[in-house]
Amino acid sequence: MLGVEGSTAVDFAIRDGMIYCYRRDSTERIRPWGPEAGAWRFPGRASWQAFTPDVRIDLIEALAAGLERTPRLPPRRKRQLEAFRFLLASWPAEAKDCVRPFSAAHWELLQLVNRGGERAVQLLRSNPALGYLVATEAAGDSGRLLGARRREIAARFGFPETEHSVRALGKAPAGCVSADLLKALRGALADDSEAGEVLAQLPRINPGLLSVVCRPELRGLVSFACLRQIGRIDPRTPHFDLVARLENLLEYARRQGRRPPRINRLADIDRLSRPAPAPNTGQQRKTPAPAPAPAPFPPPPLPESRHILAIRTRDDLRAEGRELQHCAARYARRVAEGALFFYRMLEPERATICLRRRGDGWELDAVRGPRNRRVNASTVMLIRNWLRGALHHHSPAATKPAQ
């Protein structure tokens, strides 16, 4: 993120209204706002080349706040803090306010507002999905598109040129908008008339809702009232477990040769997922004692943040492992014993955080993304800032984050 990846090898300077990021293998210069705004990278053996910085307004604000709270900053960190402050001061408040709710592409969205002014702000606020498409897929044509009718903008990106498409796009809150969601929505509106008709009657669209509506076999399980409930789920909430449970119910019904159950509300999914009690035959037969229930997870050791949520149960830990395709669920016993605790990170990138007990406190043990991939160094920095703040307020004797 603006040269923060591998931040120990990055230095910063501010000259002539630009930030310079000096890395081991390249130099970056970024002019954040104005008619000459842009970002360029010099790899060392070629000329300056345009590139797209990985920018997150809320992440920069959090990193800056963490550095401001750190006593006795070394000179390199002081220059980094100055660079963050310069960025945040360069972007007008109105631009930051309408871009901050999005989960990605903040640089592209900021530059759309930089070029398009009030028309861009109105588009991002009234129809975040259309604004996202203009910013990320047609930046060079943004001036013309901002002056076009909304259905013409939709048609430019492969959606049917209808008011129905515009209204459907407008139902996705900014926090839900992503390339994957728009791809699924484009397919539903263009190829699946039944899915499009269902979406037309729903007030809100999020990834979980699209995952159900775009699959006829799952759509047939769920009532319209339940679809409305799914549409109201917080867009930051992972929806993988919802889809997996519906698939399990469908598969179980098929194996039993029964008609699939009807899901009228979200609570029905949990109820139907529980095993049915054994029938009472009236016979007084001796039955073996039930196996002891697994120990529950202890309460979260540290407070959550907006983007870092505690994984409180074994089911949640299994769902996290299924969604990110890693083996965190194998450590459920150690969580129950109080030796480890897991948190789910939603933004700036999806990751699982593992804390390890150390003495009377906690330290960062591991951070892994999907399929155990490493996350960006800027994400680790944000986690360390959260952990330092949480440890500081939780207990004065708590252990510092591991370096």
Folded structure, characterized:
This protein has 403 residues and is α+β, with helices and mostly antiparallel strands. It folds into four domains: 1-72, no CATH class; 92-191, no CATH class; 213-274, no CATH class; 308-394, no CATH class. It is built from 19 helices and nine strands. It has helices at residues 57-69, 75-90, 93-99, 106-116, 118-126, 128-137, 142-146, 150-156, 163-170, 179-191, 193-200, 207-213, 216-219, 224-231, 240-256, 266-273, 314-324, 332-336, 377-394, and strands at 11-15, 18-22, 27-31, 38-42, 49-50, 308-310, 340-345, 351-358, 361-368. The chain has a five-stranded antiparallel β-sheet, covered by helices on one side. A four-stranded antiparallel β-sheet has the order 6-7-8-9. Helix 1 (57-69) runs antiparallel to helix 2, helix 4 (106-116) crosses helix 5 and helix 4 (106-116) packs across helix 6. The longest helix has 18 residues, at 377-394. The two termini are 20 Å apart. Mean pLDDT is 86; it is low at 3-8 and 396-403.
